[in-house]
Amino acid sequence: MKMTEAKDKFIQTWGSLGTLWGINKAMAQIHALLLISPEPLSMEDIMEELHISRGNTSMNLRQLIDWGIVFKASKAGERKEYFTSEKDINELARQIARERSRREIQPTLKVLKEVSNIEDDGSAETKEFIKQTKALYELADTADAILNRIANQESNWLTKTFIKLLK
Amino acid sequence: MKMTEAKDKFIQTWGSLGTLWGINKAMAQIHALLLISPEPLSMEDIMEELHISRGNTSMNLRQLIDWGIVFKASKAGERKEYFTSEKDINELARQIARERSRREIQPTLKVLKEVSNIEDDGSAETKEFIKQTKALYELADTADAILNRIANQESNWLTKTFIKLLK
DNA sequence: TTAAACTTTCAAAAATTATTGAAAGTTTAA
DNA sequence: TTAAACTTTCAATAATTTTTGAAAGTTTAA
User: How far does the CA of residue A115 sit from the closest CA of chain B (Å)?
Assistant: First the structure.
């Protein structure tokens, strides 16, 4: 496979993978592009490379910055803004873990705690509801703890952990 | 909070959470409903409870069955089919881990392996591409190994693991 | 058999989400 | 200041995904 082909394939794959995980295609593709660019890219560069509009590029870049995985990079003497992504893949994983915990798991935990706390009227329906929502709470809580653990550890924690788990 | 309110809130929340993860609302809601039902439900029951059409119910039930987290349950002497979900939350987690590995991580690994294997022509662009796609491969591989570990272990592995990680 | 009871399929419609592009906004060099 | 260079916003449009509902398909009791 040639570089151009490989690059296209990678960007395409990352794009559809994003969709599968609730991240939109353009956002995932911009991220993929920045991830493999040795140099920061301008908005023009990104628009051209991915064939997307200025507005689309601008909005998705903002979201990536919100997620903390893309940064603005000013080039000396240039007015234009450049963008670069987090290049350390472990740091990327940590940042994603951090954000998914904050955006998804925490709000879910809140609701599960709330609904599992209804008064037990003794009916089979209520008993099952309480039992299952409590079990889900525990599962989500464990998942959250693991994510936080990932989010806060040193760079190669994930790999080390896995090695430990194999033992 | 009253039972009816709590139930609605739980089903709603599970529905939007699904959307966020690339699972459609109806599918997530059907799953939520079955998860908290002490008795198996018929298609009519589900349609009525969630206000969704017969076709929608049928298709999403099939998907849930495909995922291995909902089962057909025949009631003696009844022609109608009933449906019930996996009630053991740890088993649910394992099944989801299994499917996400199979459906998402494995195909990604395949592409990453492929594209990271291009010939190094010595350019900065190619070098960065190879480096980053290899690093992503390792991350995805670790994630996959963890998922498989979850998928294959005994019921409360997840909890135990977490306790171990705390030490 | 057949017909009633039930489920699945799928084309059309509705709902949602993503994208565009031009106008409005902002920043900076002169 | 101002005007050029650039970015952001947002209403309109396009693309995608979900949902519906009725027709086709299947199963079972008699």
Answer: 5
